[in-house]
Automatic annotation (TrEMBL):
GO biological process, one term: phosphorelay signal transduction system
Phylogenetic placement of the source organism: Eukaryota, Viridiplantae, Streptophyta, Embryophyta, Tracheophyta
InterPro entries on file: Sig_transdc_resp-reg_receiver (IPR001789)
Limits of the Response regulatory domain: 1-67
Protein name: TWO-COMPONENT RESPONSE REGULATOR 24
Amino acid sequence: MPARLTSGYEATTQLRSVFGVKSNIVGLTSSSESEEINELVGAGRLNGCIAKPLSDVKIDSLISKGKL
């Protein structure tokens, strides 16, 4: 992530608004708080989000929903 960005939230905002990225963006977070995850997905910045630790089940779930 470039030094001028302080978070993934800012990075995805710039990808969408500045660069016009339309492809799926899936976040990876250490937070398991669903409110934070829902906020990012609901704001249209992310197409999905996975909380750490990663697992095959979590990744397969996103794939089956068409998020990846």
